[in-house]
Structures are given as structure tokens and as C-alpha cells.
């Protein structure tokens, strides 16, 4: 993750903490379980593939666009389901395998997503965007999915999310 991306992610977390009035904590389940680098890389590449595929599908179909802009949870349903699976810490008693959370991969995915936000912003700032409207749409969608992944990563409930979304709408 670049310095600018790290600053962006840190600032996003601080804004969430300020709005909620409490400190956000990363998930503890699975965080101390060693994860082989090959597995971590593979799981991250699967998440990245979901991001690129769902982003491209949105460009092709333009299904999830509203007047206010794209809706991240509708644009990236597969990616968000994958993140929920990576963070799963409890399973039903009759499950065939135990929960095996991988929060390290979600942290890596957040790094990838904020790097992408920075890349898109720089493309617009330098005027190197061939299709500025498409880049702006990608930026808005990627920015939205960063928030959604942060909500999942920090285990925010619906009331927290409503407060956050309400404060963003009024800002």
C-alpha cells in the first residue's frame, strides 16, 4: 500500500470512529492464526478477480446506477459476500468444518482497494484519464466498496451503518 493510500485508509477509519464516537477494533478471530503466504496470496487474488469482474459487469450493464450514483453493495455483491466469508467466525453446530476467519486477507484487500482509489484519483488529477466519466464512476464505486469492506471488517451493525450513511448524506 502506498503512503497516500495508507493515509486515506487511516483517515477513513478516523472519520468512522469520530461519527460513531468509539474506537474501531480489527477482528481478533483468526488474526493470530498463521496463514501461509501462498494461501494469503491466492485468497487475495480471488478477491481482486471478483472486484475486476463485478466492476466490468457494471460497466457493461450499468444495472446498479441510480441518479445519486452507483450503490456499492449492489455493484459488488460477490466481493462483499466473499469478505463476509473471510471474516466468518461462527458456524452452525452441525457444520462439517469449523469457522476459519482470514482477517489478514481482508486487510490486504483494503490495501488493494485504497491503492485503486488513489490510482483513479491521480488519473483524474493529471488528466491522463481517456474516459473521465468512466474513471469517475469507477472511483465512486471503489470508494463505496472501501466503506462497505470497512464496515464488515470492523463488525459494524445496521444501526452503526445507518448513522454513518446518515452523516455522509448530510455532509
How many strand segments? 2
Number of continuous helical runs: 7
State the order of secondary-structure elements, H for helix, E for strand.
HHEEHHHHH
Helix/strand/pairing category: mainly alpha
Strand-helix topology:
Elements: H1 3-20, H2 37-61, E1 65-66, E2 69-70, H3 72-75, H4 77-87, H5 103-126, H6 132-153, H7 158-170
Antiparallel strand pairs: 1-2
Characterize the structure shown.
The protein is mostly helical and 171 residues long. It has one domain (3-9, 34-170). The protein is 68% helix and 2% strand. The chain has seven helices and two strands, in the order ααββααααα. It has helices at residues 3-20, 37-61, 72-75, 77-87, 103-126, 132-153, 158-170, and strands spanning 65-66, 69-70. It has a two-stranded antiparallel ribbon with strand order 1-2. Helix 2 (37-61) packs antiparallel against helix 4, helix 2 crosses helix 5 and helix 5 packs antiparallel against helix 6 (132-153). The mean pLDDT is 87.
Amino acid at each position: 500500500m502506498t503512503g497516500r493510500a495508507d493515509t486515506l485508509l487511516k483517515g477513513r477509519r478516523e472519520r468512522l470512529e469520530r461519527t460513531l464516537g468509539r474506537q474501531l477494533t480489527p477482528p481478533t478471530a483468526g488474526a493470530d492464526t498463521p496463514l501461509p503466504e501462498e494461501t494469503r496470496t491466492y485468497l487475495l487474488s480471488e478477491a481482486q478477480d471478483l472486484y475486476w469482474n463485478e466492476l466490468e459487469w457494471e460497466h457493461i450493464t450499468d444495472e446498479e446506477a441510480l441518479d445519486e450514483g452507483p450503490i456499492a453493495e449492489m455493484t459488488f455483491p460477490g466481493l462483499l459476500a466473499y469478505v463476509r466469508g473471510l471474516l466468518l467466525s461462527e458456524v452452525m453446530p452441525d457444520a462439517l468444518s469449523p469457522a476459519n476467519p482470514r482477517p489478514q486477507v481482508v486487510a490486504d484487500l483494503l490495501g488493494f482497494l485504497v491503492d485503486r482509489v488513489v490510482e483513479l484519483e491521480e488519473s483524474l488529477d493529471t488528466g491522463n484519464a481517456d474516459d473521465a466519466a468512466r474513471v469517475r464512476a469507477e472511483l465512486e464505486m471503489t470508494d463505496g466498496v472501501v466503506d462497505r469492506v470497512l464496515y464488515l471488517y470492523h463488525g459494524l451493525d445496521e444501526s452503526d451503518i445507518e448513522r454513518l450513511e446518515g452523516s455522509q448524506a448530510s455532509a
